[in-house]
Design brief:
It is a single chain. The protein is 76% helix and 0% strand. The chain contains ten helices and no strands. Helix 5 runs parallel beside helix 8. The longest helix is centred in the first third of the chain and has 26 residues. Keywords: Membrane, Transmembrane, Transmembrane helix. This is DUF554 domain-containing protein.
Length: 229
């Protein structure tokens, strides 16, 4: 768990630095940083989607995942619940920043492969690299949305810790196909978040979050029942 702890600490440290910068930053600089983060999220989302879709063994799975996950998320209304919770502590646009931060930190090959490599091979290279990248990203996000971005560190710790423990218990469960499908769906969610930050259209990205649970369930069913897919 050393790599995950390092990743979490880097996010908190970066958020602290960015939060200090925000206090003395003029509105026009905050606005340009918002645009920069929006474009960065769009670029990362497109890259994740286009890079992994060609190697997918289940090319329509991401469509099914988004549809089913979206219906589940909308029925629970995760977006509204999350915004109401965050607004109790902040009246700014922190909710938008936090949802973006969580997606950027959690949905990526390094954040998924890192805990797996740490659990199976005691190799922390991916997690240490990811921690440095997340630390830099958190500086930019916190300088735009405030120190509250540090709350995403809790989600990152839980996410990576769960993958680490799961990989320890079931060494063959997190195979390449599963990581590939999760990354494709995650790429769409990051793209959606980026477009929302840019103000092009406000998408209910958090209501699509359950989509990430569909690929593991479907792939597990395929392998258990030996379905010809």
């Amino acid at each position: 768990m050393f790599g995950t702890i390092f990743n979490t600490v880097m996010i908190i440290a970066g958020s602290l630095i960015g939060g200090i910068f925000k206090k003395g930053m003029k509105d026009q600089y905050q606005e340009i940083l918002m645009q920069a983060m929006g474009f960065a999220a769009v670029g990362l989302g497109i890259n994740a989607f286009t890079q992994h879709l060609p190697s997918s063994k289940y090319p329509i799975l991401f469509i099914v995942s988004l549809a089913i996950g979206g219906l589940i998320g909308q029925s629970i209304n995760l977006e509204l619940r999350f915004n109401n919770l965050v607004n109790k502590f902040s009246k700014s646009n922190l909710a938008e920043g936090l949802s973006t931060a969580i997606l950027l930190y959690c949905i990526g090959s390094l954040s998924i492969l890192g805990p797996v490599n740490a659990a199976l091979h005691e190799d922390y290279t991916y997690l240490l690299t990811n921690g440095i990248l997340d630390g830099i990203t958190s500086i930019v996000l916190a300088s735009t949305f405030g120190f509250g971005i540090a709350a995403s560190a809790v989600v990152v710790f839980t996410w990576q810790g769960s993958i680490y423990l799961f990989a320890k218990l079931m060494e063959s469960a997190l195979n390449t196909d599963l990581i590939n499908e999760i990354t494709i769906v995650g790429g769409v969610l990051i793209l959606s978040s980026g477009l929302s930050i840019l103000g092009i259209k406000k998408f209910k990205t958090l209501n699509l979050l359950p989509s990430l649970l569909i690929p593991p369930i479907v792939i597990l069913i395929i392998h258990v029942f030996g379905l010809p897919f």
